[in-house]
Specification:
Length: 448
């Protein structure tokens, strides 16, 4: 079934344009509210958001939609996506909503739904919401006496701070560690520094002055160079860069060397194997995960299960295979012992726990393998389907023949942005560069 509103991570688009208007947000709230109002109890939905200017507009529209179908609304204000998932369960809500476009620029925004279990909705549920959005909403309007109420929850941030701290070992502190924390001017700009400071760290904060327009702008996990520079400048022991809604994280050692999601998976897998906490005999990565991670895990007699790109697919494979650690190279790390979705801050705390326990420098503890030469390249396009163009398909076939089983090539359309992502890896760095250049050129020509 073709999706009209939902992508791979909820509804997302340029705010106040055809893809994400206040009317569309209100209809999404009405439709989701209709589906999740089952039973005689007073129904409840919780809403969090990041710091985008358009968040106010979309939040108001959603509140109108939910209250119109009789749901009470609890509003959290700026809060990380994983906090919304956690509080959906904690407050026994029927539905959770996060207003965010994650790592995208401020012009974009999105709506992510969580079920009462704190998990993102299934494709089937999203299809049901889409069907109602286009037909039949008037039938579900609440009687005048049953219209919902809206209330702001003032201690939502404090609740998440305490939750995050509980994921860190009880007998351990971060005293003596200087940590740079970059919050991308996003949803975690208050909670992340508070957690690290309360655990004893000497913190240096950047990306903590949101103005509605600067989220993810030259900061955060998509631009970790700012965090790495600050680590070197302040002679810090460690750096953490979150994205706009704090569900992903990229880190840096004391030299400013980047630690990506694959290295984080390797470190947690090694640590949890020693303590007996790792389940499933390995971890779940994606088709984008570096082959170096797979080779390293094999030395520990662990396997790398590869899911499609997207945290919902990682989580699905974790559930089906009995794994409790999974994630993406981009920094979405899911630790199901703690959370139902990616949590950048909790993942960072697990890495810090290993560093504090071993008394090692981050450069020694967090670079466990040498990645294969890998090139990632995005080609932006305005419309059409360049991947189906014969020039592109022929070029991809030729590139795969050149790699000849000694490497990998992955070409896919992004589910969150109008770009085509190209990834190639091999032991031959020069070949990888050439293959990506050739495929990118073919796509650019087809997209004209």
């Amino acid at each position: 079934m073709t999706r009209k509103f939902f992508g791979t991570d909820g509804i997302r688009g340029r705010a106040n344009s055809a893809s994400l208007t206040p009317e569309l947000a209100m209809k999404a709230g009405m439709a989701a509210g209709r589906i999740f109002t089952k039973g005689d109890h007073r129904h409840r939905v919780v809403i969090g958001k990041d710091t985008r200017l358009s968040g106010y507009m979309i939040e108001s529209a959603l509140v109108a939609g939910f209250t119109a179908v009789g749901m009470d609304v609890f509003q959290f204000g700026p809060l990380p996506t994983p906090a919304v998932a956690m509080l959906t369960r904690s407050l026994r809500a029927d539905l959770g909503v996060m207003i965010s476009a994650s790592h995208n620029p401020f012009e974009d925004n999105g709506i992510k739904f969580f079920g009462p279990d704190g998990l993102k909705l299934s494709d089937e549920r999203e299809h049901e919401i889409e069907a109602l959005m286009t037909n039949g909403l008037e039938e579900g309007l609440a009687d005048a006496r049953e219209i919902g109420r809206a209330k702001r929850i003032d201690d939502a941030q404090a609740r998440y701070i305490e939750f995050a701290k509980r994921t860190f070992p009880k007998n351990m502190r971060l005293d003596g560690l200087r940590i740079v924390i970059d919050c991308a001017n996003g949803a975690a700009y208050k909670v992340a520094p508070a957690v690290l400071w309360e655990l004893g760290a000497d913190i240096v904060q950047i990306g903590v002055t949101p103005d509605g327009l600067n989220i993810n702008s030259e900061c955060g996990s998509t631009a970790p160079e700012a965090m790495a520079r600050k680590v070197r400048e302040m002679r810090a022991d460690f750096g953490i860069a979150l994205d706009g809604d704090a569900d992903r994280v990229v880190m840096a050692d004391e030299n400013g060397q980047i630690i990506d999601g694959d290295q984080i998976l390797a470190l947690i897998a090694r640590s949890w194997t020693k303590t007996g906490d790792l389940k499933g005999g390995g971890v779940v990565g994606t088709v984008m995960s570096n082959a170096g991670l797979e080779r390293y895990l094999s030395t520990l007699d662990l396997k790398l299960a590869r899911a499609a790109v997207g945290d919902r697919y990682v989580l699905g494979m974790m559930h089906s295979g009995g794994y409790n650690v999974g994630g993406e190279q981009s920094g979405h790390i899911i630790l199901s012992d703690f959370s139902t979705t990616g949590d950048g801050l909790v993942a960072a705390l697990q890495v810090l726990a290993v560093i504090a326990d071993e008394g090692a420098r981050a450069s020694e503890a967090a670079h466990l393998y040498e990645p294969l030469p890998q090139v990632l390249h995005n080609v932006r396009f305005k419309s059409g389907a360049p991947l189906s163009d014969k020039r592109v398909t022929d070029c991809i076939k030729a590139a795969e023949a050149r790699l000849n089983g000694a490497g990998r090539l992955l070409v896919r359309k992004s589910g969150t942005e109008p770009v085509i992502r190209i990834m190639a890896e091999s032991d031959d760095a020069a070949l990888v560069q050439q293959v990506v250049r050739d495929v990118a050129a073919a796509i650019e020509e087809a997209a004209r």
